[in-house]
Structures
1.
Amino acid sequence: MSAPAPFGTAIALANVAGQAGAVVVVLRDENGASIAQGKISLDARGHGALMLDSEFPQTAGRRGTIELRRPADGWVSVLGLRAGPAFSLASVPSIAK
């Protein structure tokens, strides 16, 4: 999830399935408490990207985790990116279950 400013966290999603679907998003703070939920709709074989603090303002300046639940009978590829001062950029590890 987002880190204190001036850091920003973004995610990019790609729907590998041949049918449209919605990815369920659950955001938790650093203690594991749920702070926000939502859905990201993706077209069949479509893709999208977002900045977490823009799409989910409650994450701004906070640490935590983001849980993405793939659509039933679907598969989604995810990339997390964290940008920092002085043009630093790092990928954020993801774990598939």
2.
Amino acid sequence: MCKEESLQFFSNSISSVVRKTVLFCDANNSIKDAAILMKQHKCSSILIEKDGKFIGIATDQDFRNKVVAADIIISNPISEIMSSPLISISEHSSVFEAFITIMKTGVKHLAVINNENDAIGVITNSDLINAQGKLPFLFIKEINKAVSYEEISKKQKQLPQSIYMLINEGAKAQNINNFVTAITDTILEKLITFAIEEIGQPPVKFAFMVMGSEGRKEQTLKTDQDNAIIFEDVNEERLESVNSYFLKLGECVCNMLAKTGYDFCKGNVMAKNPKWCQPFSIWEKYFNKWIYNASPETLLQTSIFFDFRLGYGDISLVNGLRASLFDFLDKRKVFFRYMAENASHFRVPLGFWGNFIVESKGELKNTFDIKKPMMLVVDFARIYALQNKISATNTMERLELLYKKNVITESDYDDLRHSYSYMMHLRFINQIGAIINEGREANNHINPKKLSRIEQQTLKEVLKKTEERVKLQQEFLAVM
């Protein structure tokens, strides 16, 4: 496949390659009847329906592993061997997003749904690979096969080259973020697995949380660790030994992450720090204190914690903590004013006459940090997402949900979405250029003089739109 065809393939809607034939049967149909239907229609899967809704899927693999190998009676209902819940993707999603979903979930069949949540077809990993041929997503499979952190480290070092290829093939910034996130999540899962094999099974339920850019699924090639451990509450007699285990786990995982290319957090916000390796009740107290004793100064240090998500472990602990967070926020509305005030201090790097404000001396002379204006959008999305009890942590997802909830207008949504995406795109190009073309470490500093006139003008417009959002935050601040 030539470069132009590859570019089109990446940006195509998944509906362009899906088999738009839906084979389904009722959950009470027998395993035998379902198998006959699949044979008649030459399908490797069948969707399972109950009360007018698709609740699962049965595949050739299910028949091999759950019927033949397990010797199940074929007159039993098909619901006994189906995979549930049904993993699905919107027909408007890109081929890229379908690949990421398949790689992250480990499934081989995705249901494709329309705007009414009706299934219009099924896409398989083979369909995607056959349509495109050789793809960088095999990267993730190779990480999953690794048996040591040394192997993972070697693969992680190849990430810039894969990103370089994706940029050249026209992948959107959000898709590249998704790709980097999928790789980072896969690496984290493998390293935690290695650590548990080394120190033994955890004594109670736990969750390894990721925060900051990783928590927002917005990691680039210049990143460090922001993580923590939350574990199930135990009685006083067990607390010391349980805490000791998880501190050891945190130390082991963070050290391996550092050895595979993820630098230690300069602020020491890591699971190896005893302060950030605590039981559920302590984490509740942390958030309660941050919210009830909030000030613009303290929020500078704690804002990354509000972007937490599950990296590995028990999702119920993370969901429980988020429920407590929303409950605390309900009772402390003034918190949003402090958060908005904190965000309003930042300014975009544009002078009165519309010129770029850059560093005047040192190694970073003639550059500005693109991450700072991007954080204005991040802060904006975070404040309104928390206020509206939106669990999503990704900035683009937060903006979309805010728009769907009529919290922001369509024009505001479009401005913020395009602005953030454009800045992220420049950030990736800058980092890849540093690593691939110049052989130096990546950073977030952009030299406007290295951009074309069109790029410079676009960036100025983007920065102006971003600054407008700051003013909106200030208006929001005034009415709190």
